[in-house]
Amino acid sequence: MKVSARTQQRLVHRHQFAEEESGNPVQEISLDGGKVRLRTETKGEACIWKDYQAICVDTFLRKAWFGENESLIYWVNQQPLSDPLTCLGDGHPGIGKIVKNWDCPGEKREILDWFHLVENLHKVGGSVKRLKKAESLLWQGKIEETIALISPLKNERAENFCRYLEIHRHRIVNYNYYQQEDI
């Protein structure tokens, strides 16, 4: 049986989704954001771009909000949060502002997620051998050695990446150790 996209949309909008909550203390939250393009009802009218934030709680619970950072913060603050709370993010200032508003009972361990770190590294370009070496150093949390490897390149992309490392120094961990310890 084929169901049209319009019918599917109506069914989704009619459905009342249950509010999900974490029953156990939350140990890890990963947060990312972006933009999504929404069609308008009027034909010929320009599409609307909306900001969204999405979280993954302890790898099993996923939620998203469209332009409602206060609702996201409120929802997280209603959950039991562990001490320490591990917060994974891409380093965007907007993500940091959201994390700062979470009422954690103890330490918030902010970690720059590996995907975004390596994505920014590969923007540097150049020698594959150098990039692999830098990736290996970053996996071990060796920021100074990575900067020493990349800074001699003297191009804008390399300078931007070194600045990125300096800004997020406190969020870059020894990923190898964290993986081995299952943190």
Give an overview of the whole structure.
The structure is a single chain. The protein starts with a helix and ends with a helix. The chain contains eight helices and five strands; from the N terminus they run H-E-E-E-H-E-H-E-H-H-H-H-H. The protein has a five-stranded mixed beta sheet with strand order 3-2-1-4-5. The chain has helices at residues 5-14, 69-77, 93-100, 114-122, 128-139, 143-150, 156-167, 175-180, and strands at residues 26-38, 48-57, 61-66, 81-89, 108-112. The protein is an alpha/beta fold and 183 residues long. The chain folds into two domains: 27-112, 2-Layer Sandwich (Nucleotidyltransferase, domain 5); 113-183, no CATH class. The model has no long low-confidence stretch (mean pLDDT 90). Helix 5 runs antiparallel to helix 6 and helix 6 runs antiparallel to helix 7 (156-167). This is ISKra4 family transposase. It comes from Microcystis aeruginosa 11-30S32.
